[in-house]
Amino acid sequence: MSSPSSPTPVSSTPSSSNNPEHASQQTTNPGASSTDFDISEEYGTARKNLPPAGIVAICVAVVAVIAAGYALTHRAHPLSSGSIDDVVAVPVSGQDMVMVAINVSLQNNSEKPSWIHTIQASLDTGSNKLSDDATPAVDAQRYFQAFPELKQHAQKLLTAETRINPGERLSGTIVVSFPVTAEVFNSRKSLSVTVAPYNEVPVVMTK
């Protein structure tokens, strides 16, 4: 009969995981040197990456000067010119209002025909500014009948959609009204007529 096998002896040496001294040696190494990590050095800073403020200011100033020069030299100019030739004002009886007939001349300085889009007159009395669109031809004829003096220097009525051929000089009359007395109108600071052709810079005439 065979004898029972002897039990395997258990080692009395403690494992490294249960040995505090061994764990201390693993986690602490007096001979190792620490390394400082600065994220600003990794990605840089505005002070290091941007040029000096003086250079930036000079560049901005140069760009501004160039932009201003370009705007002045490439600014749109009227393709036509004109003048106010004659003004006749007639007071409306019983009202603080005047009917005004204004003769203007327009010169098309471009190589293409132009068509008048709008016509407007503006009055600066010195204390107030007023404006009125040119009266349609049908109404202007009625005003000529009601106020014969208004027609004394009148020419062909100048209206919207009038065509001005290249190089042509065109003269005509517009009729407007302002809610002021004849005395205020006659002592005016200025009277302007603005003719705006289609797709062009308006022509402003002042007298």
Describe this structure in words.
Helix content is about 25%, strand content about 30%. By secondary structure, the protein is an alpha+beta fold. It has a domain at about 80-205: Immunoglobulin-like. Strands 3, 4, 5, 7 and 8 form a five-stranded antiparallel sheet that branches. Strands 1-2-6 form a three-stranded antiparallel sheet. The longest helix is centred in the N-terminal third of the chain and has 21 residues, at about 55-75. It is flat and about 75 Å long.
Helix content: 25-40%
Mean pLDDT: 80
Overall shape: flat
CATH architectural arrangement of the domain at 80-206:
Sandwich
> Tally the helices: what do you get?
6
Structure classification = alpha+beta
Features:
three-stranded antiparallel β-sheet, alpha+beta, 207 residues, 26% helix
Layout of helices and strands:
Blueprint: H1 20-27, H2 39-43, H3 46-49, H4 53-73, E1 80-91, E2 98-108, E3 114-124, E4 129-133, H5 137-146, E5 163-164, E6 169-178, H6 182-186, E7 190-197, E8 203-206
Antiparallel strand pairs: 1-2, 2-6, 3-4, 3-5, 3-7, 7-8
